[in-house]
Amino acid sequence: MVVCCKGSALSRLWKSKDQQVQQLKHYQPQNSKGGGNWRKKFLFLGILLGVLVSIWIFLSMNANIIARRKETLANMCDERARMLQDQFNKTFAEYTARTAFERPLTNGVAYALKVLHSQREEFERQHGWKIKKMETEDQSPVQDDYTPEKLDPSPDQDEYAPVIFSQETVSHIVSIDMMSGKEDRDNILRARASGKGVLTSPFNLLKSNHLGVVLTFAVYNADLPPNPTPEERIEATVGYLGASFDVPSLVEKLLHQLASKQTIVVNVYDTTNSSAPIKMYGLDVRGAGEIHISNVDFGDPLRKHEMHCRFKHEPPLPWSAITTSLGVAVIVLLVGHIFYAALNRIEKVEDDFREMRELKVRAEAADVAKSQFLATVSHEIRTPMNGVLGMLQMLMDTELDATQQDFAMTAQASGKALIALINEVLDQAKIESGRLELEAVPFDVRDVLDNVLSLFSDKSQGKGIELAVYVSDRVPEVLIGDPGRFRQIITNLVGNSVKFTEEGHIFVSVHLVEEVKSSCDFSNQVIRDSEDGIGMSYNTLSGFHIVDRWKSWENFRMFKFSTEASDAINLLVTVEDTGVGIPQDAQSRIFTPFMQADSSTSRTYGGTGIGLSISKCLVDLMGGEIGFVSKPGIGSTFSFTAVFQEGRKNLGDMRRHHPDPPVSDFQGMRGLVVDGRCMRAEITKHHLQRLGIHVDISLNSKSALSGILEACNLSGAGHLDMVLVDKEAWGEGSGLAFPRLLAEFRQNGLMKPQENLPKMFLLATSLSPTEVDDLKSAGYTDTMMKPLRPSMIAACLRKALGVGSKRQREKGQAMALRSLLSGKQILVVDDNAVNRKVAAGALKKYGAEVTCADSGKAAIQMLQPPHKFDACFMDIQMPEMDGFEATRQIRSMETKVNELIKSGEASSEMYGNVAHWHIPILAMTADVIQATYEECIRCGMDDYVSKPFEEEQIYSAVAHFFESGTVDSVS
Amino acid sequence: MLGLGAARLEADMNRLMALLFHQGVLDEQFMQLQQLQDESSPNFVSEVISIYFRESEKLLKNLRSLLHRADRECTDYRKIGIHLNQLMGSSSSVGAKRVRTVCLAFRAASEHNNWSGCLRSLEVLEHEYCYLKTKLHELFQMEQQRVMAAGARYHPLLS
């Protein structure tokens, strides 16, 4: 069973080895495979070692057993040999004493007399028989029918040893001359010479034909001297006593006395002649195993005897060794198997890991592909959009009235926002891969919100929903952060709200977190709008019920823990709508990418559902949190916080991004907002205040009328410039009817007719054509379409009040540029004639006096101080000397001159009264990449403009140093 | 009658421009160019364009000679690149978008020392250039006619 276990384990081992080999083949390319192999090798080495150990145990135990067996054999053999030897020696020692006894070991004892040849006649006569010789002529003494009578008489010899007495058992040897047998003769001669018992080599005994030995003693007469010489001994010899031993029977008898005779086979050999040992006793049974040899000394120093012992049976199987070693082997194999399984498992996990990593790489590749796709697509969209924007720009340069201008600007802004959005979608990939980095530039939150609003104004007007934004006064004007991302979040949220809202309002509010935290005491009108509904109408923007917005941010970290005091500005932005809301079951996965509330959503509303996840990522990046509360059928409110730094208000910086709405035109004007809904009125007020208009609110018509009247009667400070009435001030169409009340007042004579009434404006989300027709007759000067934006309000007010010149406003930038560049001497350096011409044309348009140079060298010559130029536009890529090199040389030239002036070696008069020469050099480059820009700055350029020229860019670049220049000239 | 002609001519011009824009032959840079033209420089656009044609013709000739050398192995791709950069710069300045695009492909081919690609690009470039030239000539003719028509109309008033 153990073997079978072992076998199965082995086969399993082999199988798994095969598997492993396959796996190895399969996963060879992976380099980290080495670790597994290494471990495997170790495991197999360990198993091999274990098996070897078990084999060693087996071998050592087996050897032990064999050694013990051998020892046993040796012991037994030695014991037997000793006994046999003892028997012999004892026999001889007591031989004489025991002659009389019948002794089992001696076949027979006989006495032969020494008879000399001279005495033979007498001896034969005395005994009455002839001395006979032992052997027959045919030299075959071994005969069964052995009778002495048939033997021939002994031939003549010097000496005879005829047997005269014999034991009954050997009576047949009487009268046989012992000297005639070769063995016996030797024996006799040796015995009488040595005086000791002498053994023959084994020979077949007479008659019995058994193998035997004959022990011979010499018998001496009494006058043997002490320490006799052999000659004296021979002389003193009287006769010989011989005893024949039948060895087989002797040994047999002896061995019978010992136990365990059956376990071993005993052979006794005479090894006097070592090349041909004579077997004296022993069975021909082939014993098993090895032989142990013991020497047996029968007391005759001339003869050597050996006893060979061997076990009769094969050694039994060494069960204990087998079982022990097998047990160890099995344990080793089992342990090995366990380890092997563990290793396999580890390997599998590693393989899985590798596979996963490969998949990850593939997924990342797919991600890259996706990004590339997005890049391509967005590029393709951008190209036609550029056409659209270009056309819009052209349209705006034509004669448009304020409304048209606003429309065109809105269209352009929206187009730009669309392009920005495409870029932002592109950023999703970056966000996901963590590569997105936020900018830190100064920006105006209010501007950002206005932009977002204008983006959605069409939609909200089309749907007839109110869209409004409110930024708390405590929010600083300039923040430092990433306006693009901030806008992206708000755009996403508002976009969602617009999508899912059919009636009611969408309201975006921006507060400081601290402000909201402390406003638990309901100090701020706008924050505290929620639940105090009046009658059926709630005090919200549109009068619709909204969800409790507090819940959307109650879990925010910023609210739970007090934020440490720092210059960080924590903004809380809420986007509240009265849309369909989010179903409860979908609320948990609303921030998961591509997950919409349900599959029907995309069918009904379109969209991918990626917006919220992007928003969440961006909010996380800004160090804020996003949350929401939503009730199906009532609406949703999304809130998020974002951390910004407070920025110093710096007009120069800001102008690059957002031209400020001209505030000064309306500074000090007074306005009245007439609206029954105080939330809405607050927001209108907020926007007007941003334009510098002082605003009062009238919540009902009565107070409004009285306010207007009062203002009309007052002059100067109390004078009202405008009245803004919401179209739905107290319900459907009530706003439209308001001027009628005023007219009635006037008819009633409460107002002097010639008194110039303030301009009336209607605020509306949507207007039907008939309503538009009614407007003028009703007494309104104009309408303002919501959502309200300062730029739009300003445009409308300007048109109505005639403040500011249209051209100045529309072409403000162009004019500013003109004023900056007018009369300035500008050098344009470009090797390309066409580019030169275009650049010169563009700059001439703004009144600059342009000189052209067609190479860097020419430019250097012309710019050698003193010169008349105020600025230089330098192409970067020019043959011979590029823009960088030219600029470097110009700068070094200037430094030289400046040093000369400074050290007084040259008076500044020599250099046109200029104490410090530094001509602004602007790079013109086709590829506006960061590296180029840095290179520009490094070699001493002041800024760069991209080719082909863009008005805004030139403006921002030129304004930078010409503004300070004008300041200098003024001072 | 003449005034009507001027209006029609202007409409035709606009249509042609729109077509050129639609085909991507021109881009908004051309518009910007037109904006630069005012009372102080009444022929600005045509001046720029004629410079452009003059320069481009030179560059094209150079490119042709560079590419049609006997041994194509020694074609100086670096010089080709410089010429192409020039052509691209001026094309983007006048808003010749398609010419510029072809130049880009041409430049890519020259960067890879792809002689046959360069040759192919040159053919396309010449085709584009010819197209642009004829269309712009057409446009300027119309412009001239329009100015003349307008001048004819306003002339009596002025005199």
TrEMBL record, chain A:
The modification 4-aspartylphosphate is found at residues 726, 875. It holds the Pfam family HATPase_c. GO terms for molecular function: cytokine binding; phosphorelay sensor kinase activity. Residues 376-646 form the Histidine kinase domain. SUPFAM superfamilies: ATPase domain of HSP90 chaperone/DNA topoisomerase II/histidine kinase, CheY-like, Homodimeric domain of signal transducing histidine kinase. The chain crosses the membrane at residues 42-61, 317-340. It is found in: Endomembrane system. It is a multi-pass membrane protein. Its EC number is 2.7.13.3. Keywords: Cytokinin signaling pathway, Kinase, Membrane, Phosphoprotein, Transferase, Transmembrane, Transmembrane helix, Two-component regulatory system. Its main location: membrane. Cytokinin receptor related to bacterial two-component regulators. Functions as a histidine kinase and transmits the stress signal to a downstream MAPK cascade. This is histidine kinase. It comes from Elaeis guineensis var. tenera (Oil palm).
